[in-house]
Amino acid sequence: MTGPADTALRYLQASLDMARESGNRLLTAKLLNNLGSFFTLQQRFDEALAVYRESLELARATEDRLLAAKTLTNAATTAIRLGQPSEAKPWLDQALTHLQELDHTRDKAYGLLNIGLAYRDLRTALPARAHTLLRSAFTAFQNAADAALAIDDPRSSSYAWGHLGALYEQEHRHREALQLTRRAVFAAQRVNAPESLYRWQWQAGRLLAALNQPDAAIVAYQQAVDTVQSLHQEMSHGQGRLLSFREEVQPVYFGLVDLLLKRAASLPQQAQYQPDLARARDIVESFKVAELQDYFLDDCVAEATAQATPLDVVSTTAVIVYPILLPDRTELLISLPSGLERFAVPVGAEALTREIRAFRHTLENRTLWAFLNHAQTLYDWLIRPFISVLAPLSVETLVFVPDGPLRTIPMAALHDGEQFLIRQYAVATTPGLKLTDPRPLPKDQPKLLALGLTEGVQGFTPLPHVSTELQTLRDFYPSTVLLNEEFRLDDIQAAMQREQFTIVHVASHGQFGRDVHETFLLTFEEKLTVDWLDRILADFRPRDTPLELLTLSACETAAGDDRAALGLAGVAIKAGARSALATLWSVNDQASSKLVIEFYRQLQIPAVSRALALQRAQLHLLDDPRYDHPGYWAPFLLLNNWL
What we know:
Blueprint: H1 4-22, H2 25-41, H3 45-61, H4 65-81, H5 85-100, H6 106-125, H7 130-150, H8 154-170, H9 174-190, H10 194-210, H11 214-235, H12 239-265, H13 270-296, E1 318-325, E2 330-336, E3 339-345, H14 349-363, H15 372-382, H16 384-390, E4 397-400, H17 421-424, E5 426-429, E6 448-452, H18 466-476, E7 479-483, H19 489-498, E8 503-512, E9 520-522, E10 527-529, H20 530-539, E11 547-557, H21 562-569, H22 571-574, E12 577-583, H23 589-603, H24 610-622, H25 630-633, E13 636-640
Parallel strand pairs: 1-4, 4-5, 6-7, 6-8, 8-11, 11-12
Antiparallel strand pairs: 1-2, 2-3, 8-9, 9-10, 12-13
């Protein structure tokens, strides 16, 4: 066994053995409780519950009521996770009784808070006893507030008042909930506790919105967003924070966006609603930056490609489309030369996500056209509402800033009933315009580093057409080619040291996982992580001259994995490249080579942008009866800079 978790387990078990041998029952009980917590973190719930039972026996034997209460609470929460809620209720009742008998301390206050949260969670599993459990949760939180007040501990007071406010919110007693929540905000501010403060500011925003006070709600939401941004560095470290980032942070940002869009909809004149639309766009952009930093565990990830041009004047031939998924509707925020406009579609996030999943699933099957109904439905929801506005404009490119599940599908394959979207417009994708610095590709003799594998290595299939692909690129650009056994880390570094390349082309298997540690590009002997790629490119390039284009022609993301698609969308930014050409899923090797070669051929033409080059390359396949199914040409995405 290897890894920090295994090391921690060995030390914990060794300490437990020593405590048993010494006959120290209290220490043994504490270590058993710690071991149970370890097993819980590892999702080994059966083992955790068994260990908690043993710890409880020893805690009772030593008459340590605080430890007994902690162990009972831990056992109860584990039983809930195991689907054994009927066992959890009596354990929580016993834990509450133990703590009520103790003098007021900080440990008691936090123990009561944990009991209250467990009662709250138990309501879902035992709906028939929801009212009783609500009263028990209220009692636990109120007792926690009393204990915190007695010892003058504002931090635990903040949690007690905040959780009480949340209970009242669930009961739709909004005014009482708001009073409690404001006490929680004040207590958190008193001790500078942003990790709880943003929760109560967000809660206050929800309550003010429910009380039909939208302006005050917007102020509260903005305060919550500001607090989250100050807390971001802490929230972006550690796997626990990583897994919950979107769940905990996204609703704060998008709750504010929701309120701003609703207020904009109530205003009749463009001059009146433009500030709210611009603010909504900026909040979405800020979230995109934070989310990408969270994925790559790197707060500096956006520095190399930070957008210098104001968002309102990015391009006269491109329209920026922000699809915003909200619980009750989807908003399309469109950046036009005349300003921002919004289009509301009465389809909530859940229904839209189902359609997106079905579209992606059917699209990958290149033998059937079952995707077409889904492609047309999504076109009706995401494109048709604003398409007529584009007719009088000289728009060439639609640049999508997708969110969540929309990252997993190619917008180019949406269909209006007669033709694919790619017939009408070039299509590009960016994780956010703040992360993009749109500049045309320099046409004066770019230098290309071509890396690839034709041989099957490390259990991956061969890519026989890669050899022709890389050799053809030599006809377009002065190139250095590292193929098969030459495609090693040392050889890449040596090549980068000799030349300053404009384009890096990787024709090898790549995988983007939901975690940056699961993301890699395959070399002849190793798996090249995105961190290593970033390091190699950064070591041999001036910071003010980023790579112009990174092409990954054989990478893939898992269907339905929004975080993996986020990693793909951000690969150019992480690697310090202005743009990337990459695939959402693995494409037929011959089709991939055909498209990529045409892309580079088009890129030779002086007036052709990267997005237009990809459009022409995709149409090149679409017009070939062998490859007209979008499963061949649609997964190619142009990411970030489209010019």
